[in-house]
Amino acid sequence: MKILISGGAGYIGSHTLRQFLKTDHELCVLDNLSKGSKIAINDLQSIRDFKFFELDLSDFKEVKSLFEREKFDAIVHFAASIEVFESMQDPLKYYMNNTVNTTNLIKTCIETGVNKFIFSSTAATYGEPQTSVVSENSPLAPINPYGKSKLMSEWVLKDANMAHPEFKYCILRYFNVAGACMDFNIGQRYPKATLLIKVAAECAAKKRDKMFIFGDDYDTKDGTCIRDYIHVDDISSAHLAALEYLEEHESDIFNVGYGHGFSVKEVIESMKRVTGVDFKVELAPRRAGDPSVLISDAQKIRTLTSWQPKFDDLDLICKSAYDWEKQC
Ligand SMILES: NC(=O)c1ccc[n+]([C@@H]2O[C@H](COP(=O)([O-])OP(=O)(O)OC[C@H]3O[C@@H](n4cnc5c(N)ncnc54)[C@H](O)[C@@H]3O)[C@@H](O)[C@H]2O)c1
After folding, report:
1. DSSP codes, 210-233
2. How remote is the CA of residue 80 from the centroid of ligand 1, in Å?
3. Of 58, 130, 127, nearest to 93 (Cα)?
4. Which sign does the torsion angle of CA 148, 149, 150, 156 carry?
5. What is the CB < 6 Å shell around ligand 1?
6. Is the Cβ–Cβ distance between 184 and 43 less than 8 Å?
7. Is 146 labeled as catalytic in the residue annotation?
8. End-to-end CA distance of the chain
9. C-alpha to C-alpha distances, 222 to 176, 264, 266, nearest whole angstrom
């Protein structure tokens, strides 16, 4: 298959590209490099060559002409704006980049005969769920423009598929992605990140002098929030499984997580243990909109697709995040 990976220079896109490069698929990458890294692209080109298009998805004319020229069979669509806090300050950026640009991409796929679309969605579409474990059928009620912009893209995909049944999609709702593969220069680069494992890794690597626990009075075993952390290489392999699934099946939606979680305190303890670094942690008030527990019901992807997670180990995830932080 000839596959276009949008956002392939970013964190999850580059890890996925690395795995796809080990298959027989012909690969192309589109990225505007607003957050992605050309170093990652250059590094990955040492596995084998692929075309890289530095292009913004909002350039509809160029995107269309690229699709007409290259005749892709499938798209794996990562490119998006991804910061929840920024989405509350600048919602239109999120609706434009995530919903409008994705809608145009779907339209372009339909117009140029690209019939397989793998979409990066998020657990943020569930908002603050009533249950700690959420299945694909749990109510969708995102509480920020980032989550809403992704849910709207899901709706567009579903409606496009109803009107054009030959156009099939797989929506992957990721839980908390973390860690890095260590053989290429492709970890999480975000400055000012708020993602727990990244922040803890930065503390251990002495890039921050302290971190905060936001609330220790939740109804959990140690009072801190519990999340489902998944290694980026397991998220990446889910895209290969999803593409394979679409060859034989109709469109579908899958949670991608491990189906169990760790508390904030457990993550910090793991980071300190695997790095041998004791860093400063302070208690701060709860943040608005943080559910106490958010864990995926991940049975569906395990049952229906060939996906086999290999890195379900918190210490390993923390160690890889730390090793990346030290080298980048
Ligand atoms: N990181 C997570 O924990 C997480 C969780 C759930 C879902 N997701 C989703 O996964 C996808 C990838 O996330 P990531 O963490 O790798 O983010 P990232 O910022 O590292 O990657 C996104 C990439 O898209 C590119 N991009 C953004 N807008 C573009 C545009 N208009 N045109 C072309 N390229 C553009 C950026 O340059 C970047 O390389 C996103 O869709 C995100 O919503 C991420």
Report:
1. EEEEE-S-SSSTTSS-EE-EEEHH
2. 4
3. 58
4. positive
5. 7, 9-13, 31-36, 56-58, 78-80, 82, 97, 101, 120, 122, 174, 177
6. yes
7. yes
8. 33
9. 20, 9, 9
- The tens digit of pLDDT for each residue in 50-78 reads 999 999 999 999 999 999 999 999 999 99
The per-residue pLDDT for range 164-179, each reduced to its tens digit, is 999 999 999 999 999 9
Q: How far apart are CA 195 and CA 8, in angstroms?
A: 20
User: Which alpha helices (H) appear in the chain, and where do they start and end?
Assistant: 11-20, 38-44, 60-70, 84-89, 91-94, 101-112, 145-163, 196-204, 232-248, 264-275, 299-304, 314-327
Least Cα distance to 55 among 15, 101, 19 occurs for 101
Question: Which single residue is written with the structure tokens 């990562």?
Answer: 78
**What percentage of residues in the chain have a pLDDT greater than 90?**
91
Q: Is the pLDDT of residue 289 over 80?
A: no
What's the longest Cα–Cα distance across the chain? 57
Choose the CATH number for 196-227+259-327 among 3.20.20.70, 3.90.79.10, 3.90.25.10, 3.40.630.10.
3.90.25.10
Residue entry with tokens 């075993």: 221
Domain at 2-178+229-256: CATH code: 3.40.50.720
User: On the CB side of 121, how many CA atoms lie within 13 Å of its CA?
Assistant: 33
Which ligand 1 atom sits nearest the alpha carbon of residue 97?
31
The whole-angstrom separation of Cα 152 and Cα 174 is 16
Structural tokens at position 229: 């952390």
Ligand 1: nearest atom to the Cα of 176: 3
DSSP bridge pairs for 263: 226
* Most confident by average pLDDT, 45-49, 101-105, 192-196, 290-294: 101-105
Q: What is the DSSP string of 89-146?
A: H-HHHHIIIIIIHHHHHHHHHHHHT--EEEEEEEGGGG-S-SSSEE-TTSPP---SHH
Half-sphere exposure of 201 (CA within 13 A, CB side): 30
| Domain assignments of the chain as residue spans, ordered by start | 2-178+229-256, 196-227+259-327
